[in-house]
Amino acid sequence: MQTNQPITGADALMRSLISEGADIVFGYPGGSIMPVYDSLYDYQDKLRHILVRHEQGATHAAQGYARVTGRPGVVIVTSGPAATNVITGLSD
């Protein structure tokens, strides 16, 4: 891969997550986060996505995963109400 080729912000995020040791992401797609999900599809051999039913559940699952494995707990949600739904899980 050539290093002088431009990449999207979503691709940069995926590469950063992988370089930090992430292997699973928990999330709920929608709205403005879809470019990140499009990129996640291209990295599905390195990052497994767990679809949750609610954003708050994603934060609790990611936190439990991080505590048990020592790997980063990653949550991907969209903006607006989805972002506020993660607050309870983040506060723990």
Question: How does the SSE layout of this entry go?
Answer:
Elements: H1 9-19, E1 24-28, H2 34-42, E2 48-51, H3 55-69, E3 74-77, H4 81-84, H5 87-90
Parallel strand pairs: 1-2, 1-3
N-end to C-end Cα span: 40 Å
Q: Given the structure, what is the number of helices?
A: 5
Structurally, how many domains make up the residues? 1
The chain-level structural class is alpha/beta
pLDDT averaged residue by residue? 93
List segments where confidence is low: pLDDT < 50 over at least 5 consecutive residues. Answer: none
**Main sheet record:** 3 strands, parallel
Q: Look up the CATH topology.
A: Rossmann fold
Estimate the strand proportion: 5-15%
- The H-and-E topology, N to C, reads as HEHEHEHH
Please give the radius of gyration in angstroms.
Answer: 13 Å
Strand order in the sheet with the most strands: 2-1-3
The H-level CATH homologous superfamily, spelled out, is Thiamin diphosphate (ThDP)-binding fold, Pyr/PP domains
**Architecture in CATH?**
3-Layer(aba) Sandwich
CATH class: Alpha Beta
What is the count of β-strands? 3
Overall shape: it is: globular
Q: Bin the helical content.
A: 40-55%
Features:
92 residues; alpha/beta; Rossmann fold; 5 helices; 3 strands; 47% helix
In short:
47% of the residues lie in helices and 14% in strands. By secondary structure, it is an alpha/beta fold.
Structure characterization notes:
The protein is built from 5 helices and 3 strands, in the order H-E-H-E-H-E-H-H. The protein has 92 residues and is α/β, with parallel strands linked by helices. It has a single domain, classed as Rossmann fold (3-Layer(aba) Sandwich), CATH 3.40.50.970. It has a 3-stranded parallel beta sheet with strand order 2-1-3, with helices on one face. Helix 1 crosses helix 2 (34-42). The protein is globular. The relative contact order is 0.21. Keywords: Transferase.
